[in-house]
Design a protein that fits this description.
Layout lengths: L9 H8 L2 H5 L3 E2 L9 H7 L4 E2 H4 L1 E6 L4 E6 L4 H19 L1
Antiparallel strand pairs: 1-2, 3-4
InterPro entries: EDR2-like (IPR045096), EDR2_C (IPR009769)
Protein name: Protein ENHANCED DISEASE RESISTANCE 2 C-terminal domain-containing protein
Pfam family, one: EDR2_C
C-alpha cells in the first residue's frame, strides 16, 4: 500500500503501468529460509534472487488502485518439485 501517489515512485509506476514483458524482466523472488529451516529445503530453494517471469508463467491483473500477480508454479517442473518439497516439510513441522 502506498501513502503517496504512484507517480512519486517512478520505478513502481513503470512496473504497474508497463507491459508484461517489462514486468517479467523486473519481478524478482528473493528466497529466505529461516535459520531453523531444513538443510534440504535451504539447498533446494537456494539463496539467489530469481527473475520469476523468466522461469514461470505470470498473469497480471490490475485496476485503478491495485495490481495482482498470479504466478503459475505448475508451468515449471522444477518449481513444482521445490514447492512440493517445501510443503512436505511445512506439513511435517505442523505435526511435530
Amino acid at each position: 500500500m502506498l501513502d503517496s501517489p504512484l507517480e512519486k515512485v517512478p520505478l513502481l509506476e513503470s512496473f504497474v503501468r508497463g507491459d508484461d514483458v517489462f514486468r517479467n524482466s523486473r519481478f524478482k523472488l528473493i528466497p529466505y529460509i529461516s535459520k531453523v529451516g531444513s538443510w534440504i529445503v535451504k539447498q533446494s530453494v537456494g539463496k539467489k534472487a530469481c527473475l520469476v517471469g523468466q522461469a514461470l508463467e505470470i498473469n497480471y491483473f490490475h485496476g485503478s488502485n491495485y495490481l495482482e500477480l498470479d504466478v503459475d508454479i505448475r508451468s515449471s517442473t522444477v518449481a513444482r518439485g521445490v514447492v512440493s518439497l517445501v510443503l512436505g516439510y511445512l506439513l511435517k513441522v505442523g505435526t511435530d
